[in-house]
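Standup, Tuesday
Yesterday: got the pipeline producing structure tokens again.
Today: sanity-check two examples.
Blockers: none.

Example 1:
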Amino acid sequence: MLTSVQRTVIEANPINYPFGNTRSKNVLQDFNCEAGGFNLCSSSLKVLFLGSGDLRNALQIAENESFNHMQIHLNDLNPSVVARNITILKIISAPDFNPEDDEDFAFLWDVWYNLEWPEVTHKRFRGVLKDLLNDLYPENVSVPKTSQAEMLKKVWSAWLSVLSKTESEARVLMEKVGLERKMSISKHWQLLHRKELENAKNCDSFSMAIDDLASNLERSIGLGGLDDSSMQNIHEEAKQYFETGSCRLENDIKIVCLNPTLLDHATLRWTLHYSLCPFDGYMPLLKEELVTLMKNKMMIRSCQKILKNLLSCYRKRLIDGKTFELFFYLEDALEFCYSENVNKFDVIDCSNMADHVGLANLILACSGKLLDHPSAMLFTDTLRWFEFKSVKFYLEKVLCCPLSMIPTIYGLRLKSRIELGLPEYVVDLRCPTSLPVEVCWQKAAPFRNVVMSASPALSEFLYQLANVCFDAKFPLRITGVPPGAGCGMLLYTPQTFSYVVNSMIQRLGGDHWLKNDVRPAEMNPNFQLARRTLEAWKNGQKILKLSANMPTASCAKMASLSGIPSIRLILLPKAKQGNCSDFSGPGVHFIDNFEVKLENFSTGFEDASISFLLILHHGLEKTHRAILVDILDGSEFVVFESFESVQVEDWSIPYPFIPSKIQLEVPAPKEFHIKVESCVESEDQFHLKIKVISPENAAGIVLFINFPAPCESSHEIRVSRMQQQKNYEPLSLSFPYPIILENIRLILDPTCRHVELVVKKALWELWPCEYRRADDLYNVIDPDQLKPWKEEESLQRSLKTHISSQFNINHLANTSLMKKSPLNVVRRVMKALFLDPARPRYVTIQRMNAPEPDWFFLVHRPVSTTPTGRPFLLLSAIDFRLAEKLVKGGKWSEEKNAEDLKRVFPGGKEIMTIPIKTTEDSKLLKFVLRLNSSKIKPSTWQKNNLTLGEDSPWMATFVSPLYSDNPLLDVESADASSRSMSDNNCCAACKKVSQSPKRCSRCRSSVYCSVECQHQHWPQHKMVCKKV
């Protein structure tokens, strides 16, 4: 019950992914050892995979040869997934296993992917299982918890029993599973293609389904230039897999049994996702990965080639004697993170768990297990971000705050610059569907000597989060599914709200930023008991764990649920009997955080039990009963009719976020000193009120800002006196979001002995940590090594398609519809630079009515291709505004400037000027160019001809498309529509947005701008109000 996630009954209709359906990735490619103080020789790198799925991501990091010691921790809740991974490791870690040996690799491929097995695989796999049941794990593999090791033995025993069936029993099982598999594929495909089936007569839905699935895979290969015959062969190859569930190079194999690792170990049912295919895990292919020597079975040969490379890296590491330890955990991912005995990690990869538990729940749990060094990284993926049409909107909606407030609220910073469009490793125009988006997070710097105060921005965040966490509106079939349900927001609970608030109190050193009236304002009366229980737990008071066995009838009813329902525990007065569907009124308590244990057998759920927490003197023993309710359709399941049947014990596990006191620098008594009394944060600035304690007045206060050039942002400033006193240290102030060094306002009030300090956030400036030497990056781009862009040989779409994909497609024909945002202005600069190779190589960027250009570019054509297939255009650039500052500061001379300009931009050459309008456009362009300059090494020409360095206005940089999240959709309009539908400040009567909205006191769901509007709307609202 440490987890803050709403319980879902995934056991009712389990959908399993025993092998991955996306390409593996190297999570260490951006890990900077130098910044983290990591010793490659002696330090042990610790990586955690939450919801690990199959092994390919873990094997992928074995290719990082620079790390001598690695500890890989893999967690998954599915016993079959963990048992499969250890079994595969047992196979590939054997001293006599050779991935280049056809027989060895065919055996591994059978275990990993194929449903149907020949006798040789059957016999060999039995031997592997017997070793594992005798605790003969690979030397580098361990299961730390004995109880979990015993659970894995049950899985291996179930597999062994399948392989021990007689020939006739095995044939019966094959027929049963084959029929289940066909029905599963047909059923799910029919749900997605109802209209097509309405017009089809006497159709074979299974044949139509597998043909359609094969066509989808064919389109996702991503390689152009293949002839029709090759594409047809690939289509037939995929179709054959979907028809049989197996793919192998060998023909005419006699099948004797099924692969037990692909079945539910408890029920022996087929539970794989209907569209899952081995080839998906290797898509899209690179051109060099496609095996074309033989036209038949190209997909199998190509995918096996990639897998063999992964296995070779892993086995080479073992042979070289480099440590590669693997630890497996079989438990809920969030419970695992909140456990006290868990290590902290350098890298945590969460796969797409954010969609299944909610992003706020996930990053709260993971951030506490992430090491504090600067290079530690957390990766979260989402497949459902497109519900909000844009990755930026997705993050802001699911976290209930603007991007610039995330460091303060969640203690993390976005390493991924998603405000510039899709991250570059997500973009693949070869794929017909949206790829999962991976977002990288790092620990944010803490506040130092800053006392946070309540602010409208923080109050709005709390209000938005509370609306999601204390949502009493259900069943959803009546109230409607709220936005973000598919992204996990439906799984936020009161415990989510408690964890977020108290993690902030812990990091900010107190609750001085929390308005007193915010706490009860959002609270529906049905959640009061849950809130009191959480408060008691947080305060270290005694609370109770209550457990009960569920009636058999309720278990059977729950097993018959469709989909993956979310359930809520409701404590009802005994007087409310029967299927009432009305859960309003006094004495009704909602409990969203509880534990349900369901044992899934072939006959249904057995031995189901439920546990939940309550305060010590809850007073419900004689008056209440308990039911579970499906939030979607309102179905009810009796838990117990009386508390007399409930087992009660003390709950001794401590609350995860213990409040702490802020540690301020304490000045010596009777001396001059300064302290921050308040800090009000908004989306774009910090406004501080500083008290000056001195026999004199506050005059003479100055700021000291230390930052390494060319960085123009800093996390820290120092406040001091112009004339330093003896034994006085300046006051250092630190902020989690860096501040820009321009436009700092210092307002002195000598009479009241206060200073007001206003600092702007560096929204369009690189963070100090982003100014790293290119040599520190694993995936740094070396322009000299890039190949020229060749349209006819490109792995991706045409150059024009790449550039067009920066914009909404519907706006390209009519640019007047395009939003005039700074991002679109910069995208138009990219378009001008890329699409006309006949244009001059010399380019200036100049704001309208500005006396001089902001930038001067030398464009190094031709266009090149990055390793990921994106167009790349190298630039040698000079920042004229920076040059002016450096000259004024004495770090650069006008003579040097003129000399370099003459060398790089000789006279008499044609120059093209690209106009931009606003200062915001210029700032964003500068930000993009500086960000890109941190990702490349200068070319040989640039090293020889440019004066590069910290105190130079010259820059080796590049441009590449800033892809739109969804070029087929008008993101701005979609966001506006979404906001108009879900804006909590929109008056239900006149539809105006109010700055001080009034909420219906009865249902708390409708908002009004005035009492008059509320009275006017009552005839329409009263029917809804009664239901809510």
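Example 2:
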Amino acid sequence: MKLFIRDQPRAIALATDTHVLILRHSPSSVSVSRNTSTTSIPEGGAPRCIVEFSPWEAQDMSSYRSLSSMKVQGTLGLVTINNGDVFLCVVNGSSPAATVRPGETVQRILSVEFHCLTTADYDHLLNDQVNPFPTDSLDADGHDYSGHREPLLEHPCMSLKKLLSGGSFYYSADFDLTKRLQDRPTGGSTVAIESLDAGFLWNTFMIQPLVEFRSRLSERERQALDQSRILTSAIRGFASTITVPASSSPARMRAAGFPSNMTLISRLSCRRAGTRFNARGVDDDGNVANFVETETLFCTDSLCFSYVQCRGSVPLFWEQASGLPGQQKITITRSADATRPAFEKHFDALAKAYGDIFVVNLLSEEKSSEVQITRQYERHIGESALNQPMGGKGGALSEHMHLRQLNYDFHAQTRGPNGYEAASGIRQGIESAALSFEFFLSQDMEESVLKEGRKQSVVGPNVVLEQSGIFRTNCLDCLDRTNLVQTIISQLAVEIFLRQQGERSPTSDFWARHGTLWADCGDALSKIYAGTGALKSSFTRSGKMSLAGALADVRKSAQRLYINNFEDKGRQNTIDMLLGRLIGQMPVHLYDPINDWVTAELTRRVAEYSTTEHINIYVGTFNLNGKTAGPEDDLSLWLCPESIRSQPVADIMAIAFQEIVNLDVQQIMSTDPHRRSAWEENVRQTLNTNARKRGSDEYVLLRGGQLVGASLSVFVRASVLPYIKNVEGAVKKTGMSGMAGNKGAVAIRMDYADTSICLVTAHLAAGFANYEERNQDYRTISTGLRFNRDRAIENHDTVIWFGDFNYRIGMENERARGLVRKGDVATLYENDQLNLQMVHGRTFPFYTEKTPTFMPTYKYNLGTDEYDSSEKARIPAWCDRIVTRGDNLRQLVYDTAALRFSDHRPVYGYFQCTVGVTDQGKKDTISGELYARRRAAVGSHTASRGDESDDESLLGYDSVEAGLPPASSEKRKWWLDGGMPARSTVKPPGNGYAPNPGRLSNPFTPASEPDWVKVDRPGEQPSPVRGASGAGNAPRALVPRKMALPPTSSEAAAAVAPPPKPPRPTTVDEQEGRVHLKQTLRKSAPPPKPNKPTLLRSESSQSTASQTSHRSGAPLPPPLLPEQRRVLSKPPAEMPPPRTVSTELKPPAAVRSPQPPLPPPPRTTLKKPAVLLEANGETPLPPSPPPRRPANGLMDEGGGEQEMRGWVPLRPK
């Protein structure tokens, strides 16, 4: 990979042998043009860059110069410095640090460089660093004739360069380094950078703009970008591998003479990153300081073992002052109640990621400050929601403890003559938890399958076990004591793994290599957080205490004192700059004018290249009752029953077993994978025998999972393997506080084409009356079982649960058996606990179950079809069930099989599932057409061309339909073009229509109101003489403000409610009928407020508007004053004969204060005469209305005084 730079205009290119990524800085504001808005709105001050990714041969690189000395391994991203300059960070030096498995290498970053995208001012600094002793200015005799040189300026990114080049950052181009082995998807050849864990990705802030750009690329370009390995993901912490020779390898029984690898990877969280005294405790988001996930891996040529534990500061709000020893006072800054939300967030996140949690607290019981922290810590753990039942009757607290704690005063325990060796005594308190948490184990399996008539070999890793819990260790700094105890926990986990595999005890050479890895890890993490190596590392390395080790600890303590008091502030500032946390620091905004537009268009046209297909899924569940007999029995009655032989061969076969082993005290704490392997082999042979009979492809084991007695194995036809991707597995324990796997669930998810499918087998709590406990088990599994990217079970298109749910039939034994003899399945099902709980929404919400037509499946006498005849005489029940969720599922068969070697009967279901399939060829064709169309509009290479476009921010914002303006962006508001408010050019549908004032202001809001309303104009009036403003229009009759009378039935259809606010002044175009908004740049002053007119009530039944003249098609009057209201008229046929009205008006220039007009003439007399006097007859008549203005002349004719006799003032009721 090479780096190229172009000076004018400034651009940087990262090129591989096949592709090139070009970045060019663009001004944050665009110049004024007729196509853009004059009010450019900057995107929060964020700098903007044009980016382009294209094949190498499609680019003209003649204007670029190559930095021959730069061998680039990838880019960490883009960063902005305070002055607004944008820098591209590239890795130009690294060394191999670890090899997890063949083809999975971890690189340690040794050197980085920052190249400026905005200016060339810093290029000479880069040249001076590359060649600190230039010879350009020397003559033939070696004399320097350049004269005195000015001292070099420090590069603005020098502190970042020192931090990233310090040897504490690692990356991998082969696999996702931010995730543990258990969470990594299998079969991925490239790293999907958008799926990385942001909590451990230290260059998230810098790489995020490029990740967002990648998400907008086409699938083919996205794969090309991933394969180019240009984008680099970096973690901070430690990674190292030690080769274990075959003679020292503990897995000697399985090894074929090849050496093994032991690897240790520590991932430091970046969410609350900082130095020792600057980052303590927890923040409000639940992130703690110095949180590290450490993974121990041991891999041979056929298997891979992984065990994860974590460390982190005590999740309370506390601080510690720096200073001399004795002055470092600890202060708890928040009360227990104020701390609880952050505490719960922290442990909820841990529970989702790792399962159950065992806290190992190593704080002192003698120091008052540490005792105070321990007591509050204990209180929060005891009150944690993880230890509380989530509803239900009689939920025992001990059955729901998923967070436990062990206090172990490390200094007190190691004070005796044995020293640090006494710390191994902690094993007694944690061994039972270590057994229940288990570990991750995968083995390579090779299968020969028949595909398209030919035998083919399929090799792939098979997950045998998964880790279901984690140890969380802490001391005060989480460095020295924590590292030593974590070494003991790692050693205990390896011993459990080897004992389970039947291997002999490891040699001393193996443990010496193990101790060396952990000592190096402790030193690396301590240097990051405290500035020096870890204390007690000599004991961790050799297992013995020595005088040299004690003296080294004294020296390290003195170094820490200096670094923490004088250097940590600057180190903290650099860390904040790397993570983008400085005030005013903005991420870079990347814009790809071509791909952004094409991606949006493809999303809009997804129906053109997507189709649906039908696949067939078979699911079966069988509780084996711990019987060893069975793997040799014929399972065809269950796996290939008569009821589905008329259906097509299933594409996916999901087979679940419960109680695959005897659930005794010893078995429930650990998992034996050998029993599952024997049953899987029997199932595979049965399926392939049936497939050959029916002329179908053979089945391949896609993935299997086991939780002690519960197992799930998914087989798929070899021909459908190309459609399946993103296969993941997860387990969740619910038995004995989550410590035991006798109850719980195993889940496997996959993507079949464009549809996500999740298969879950569960074994829930037993007991006739424990249905609330079973409901709680469902909730625990549904919320606690998580896949990668925090994907839950319900986050899938298709979900199928099947297993031994243990729900019973709620009736007396004799009655139930009588109904069984009668075959009355309906009555039995009406009393079924699962049916009743689902109907009431207490379990499996939004799931459905096909009504069983078979007899209850539990409990039978072994080898017979008779129900339980023992002393317990259990009531027959449908314990084994299948429930589904998803509108793309259609269940065709739901039945049971007559296998009699267990006290349960196996149950199976056959489904037809509709999946979405993308026609990639058609999608590529549409994509090619869109690319060609877009390139014709904006040019082929937007990032590499030399001209500066003044319209870059508008590329990709086309109008949705012809005649509409282009969509607005962050930089362009089309309604502000030209610095003037928008002018409406919308034409009314015909004469006499006006905008509906009752319509919402947003035209895109759904509403029942029409856009236009018919406004009947009054009759033709004599036109007054107008001035230079143009021809006049007859004014409408004006009425004083008063409450509207209730409309009659004939008036209701034509009447329009008056607008709540006066309309804006408009200009009416008489010829075109257009209504234009008035051009103005500032808000006009409101008219003077007139005296409030007297409100009167008329006794007439006719409206004033009905007595005015009317002429159809008359032009609209000039706008009314805000204090005046317009009255809509009736149709002309209902109008009475018009009266002659004077229409003298003052010229518009003479603006007069508006006066209340005279009221309209009286209507017909009311049936009940109005009361003009009070009861005592002493109240005078109300004052007469204000006199008419003689100059107005609007109502000079008609006898005004006579018409006012029927009006009375409004009075409150």
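Quick observation on example 2: The radius of gyration is 41 Å. The chain has a mean pLDDT of 77.
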